[in-house]
Amino acid sequence: MTTAAKLSRHSPRRVFRDRREAGRVLATLLSAYRNREDVIVLGLARGGIPVAWEVAAALQAPLDAFIVRKLGAPDHEEFAVGALASGGRVVVNDDVLRGLRITPQQLRDIAEREGRELVRREAAYRAGRPPLVVTGKTVILVDDGLATGASMFAAVQALRDAEPAHIVIAVPAAPESTCREFAGLVDDMVCASMPTPFLAVGESFWDFRQVTDDEVRQLLSTPTVGATITPAAAPTAAEVIRRVAIDAPGGVPPYDTLEEIIGDARIVLIGESSHGTHEFYEARAAITKWLIENKGFCAVAAEADWPDAYRVNRYVRGVGEDRNADEALSGFERFPAWMWRNVVVRDFVDWLRARNQRCAATTGRQAGFYGLDLYSLHRSMQEVINYLDGVDSNAAARARARYACFDHASADDGQAYGFSAAFGAGPSCERQAIEQLIDMQRNALAYARRDGLLAEDELFYAQQNAQTVRNAEVYYRAMFSGRVTSWNLRDKHMAQTLEALLKHLDRHGDGARIVVWAHNSHVGDARATEVGSDGQLTLGQLVRQRYGDDSRLIGLSTFTGTVTAASEWGGNAERKVVRPALNGSIEELFHETGRDAFVVSAALNPQAADPLAVVRLGRAIGVIYLPATERQSHYFHVRPADQFDAMIHIDKTRALEPLETTSLWIAGETPETYPSGL
């Protein structure tokens, strides 16, 4: 597979393949304007014309060019001091003019020069056709992006002179501040993506070649009303996927297909587009069993807290005190407990214990169960102390003294500590967490010599708890400084834990192989998503960058059904109805194939590359599901071909059953008549 190598050569900020694709994405966001006789589309020439043509064709609206010329400063023409728009409207930045000491005569000279070019382009582009009449119309102004917004501002001011009924601006990429500014100036503002930090419009495109006059003329002469965007003979994206997809009953592909997807990879990440879908958990468990039995995988690393998962690890290896899987999973008390305390995980844990018992009888390699997450700040501190109490009482006393720094916060509330430390309401315990980690590392060799492999495992467990305390301390303080920062710290911790686990298991035998269970939002490569433009990292991206072709990323999706989720953080588990996926989403595309469950991969069949390479919306339901704000809360733009090595789609799914079901979960949610609600 070449996906990882291909992605690494691209900037992580790029979302759209080219301007034409950006236009198709915008068109899905402007679908409310489709087939309206009062709508016309104006593309800002030249770069906005390919984008605008796709929008106009999808909306079945007339297209024309709207020409805006930048007024560049003398001797620094790339620096805009204003803009000149069709109709002769001039907009200037008075502060810049004064700052650069540009005289009125210099400004007139610049405007006259650009005015001549504007007239030339209008004549060349329209080939004698009169401009569209915009009076009384809903005008959608389209460009390939906004930076300062000077050109678009000039266009809006000039357009207002023609008295349109409504003005809409649509761009693929712009700074959030610019989008907000224009939202207050026009009737509707559509920004497909808002990269942070915003460097340049071209950073959002893989292909940002300059648009030529000939391209503009050709597009303007190609009808958009009654246009067929895809030639009639060409199959639709859904037809292509239907033809190349491979049936995966219950979400489990045939084993020969799994063999082809996974090959010799050492790390396989299997995702889920919700934390509460029965079929996702079942399919993932079934695939994992095959990986353990047939591919030599020796560990499951889950998006779970390290101490709670390690209790399960002890149970499946037959060294813990728990009598059954239910007891082994009882450590998962923190919200959302159902993520791991559910019937599917319980059954998998029972299977893994029985399988390990058979291996022990034949000296085969056992498989473990581990956690990657860092929410266990206080629990991990206690586990460090518990370990040291058994091997080094003096070290245990030092650990107690250091970790006492955290006592000012609530007994098991990392957020309370983070808030008080971040805002000066309590001390920062960063130094103490680091000192304890160093102390553990310094004495590791002496501790490991005590009782062989078992002691080595327990030492590794304690060391990772100390590392978790260190990273969780930083994470909880960062929670109050920005979402991207805290997200990245969490996924970096998961990647760091995964690497440490791989090295530890390598010491127990050659070529350790690990399967990771986590949400799609962690498993997928952020560089192929909208959030990557904001600087967000993911575990999948970090694994690809570290292990390359030794890794595989597999995503799971669904179109509709039910899901176990809460309505607020810390809320009760509810059985909620999952709305049908939105137009323009990858889930909708998969639904349109008419197939119940399948796997698709551009690596398996190159014909799938084009449909999967289109930027679409992707749904992500976490532990909270808010159908009322579905688009804002649960969707972001993705490029599936580069986000995952393969995707498994199960069209209709049901809610995951918690081990403790409440009357609220049993009652479920009354399905609404979507989308009208009537």
TrEMBL record:
Residues 29-177 form the Phosphoribosyltransferase domain. CDD domains: Ere-like, PRTases_typeI. Pfam families: Erythro_esteras, Pribosyltran. This is Phosphoribosyltransferase domain-containing protein. InterPro entries: Emycin_Estase, Hydrolase/PRTase-associated, PRTase-like, PRTase_dom. One of its GO terms (biological process) is response to antibiotic. Coiled coil: none annotated. The lineage of its organism: Bacteria, Bacillati, Actinomycetota, Actinomycetes, Mycobacteriales. It comes from the Bacteria. It comes from Mycobacterium szulgai.
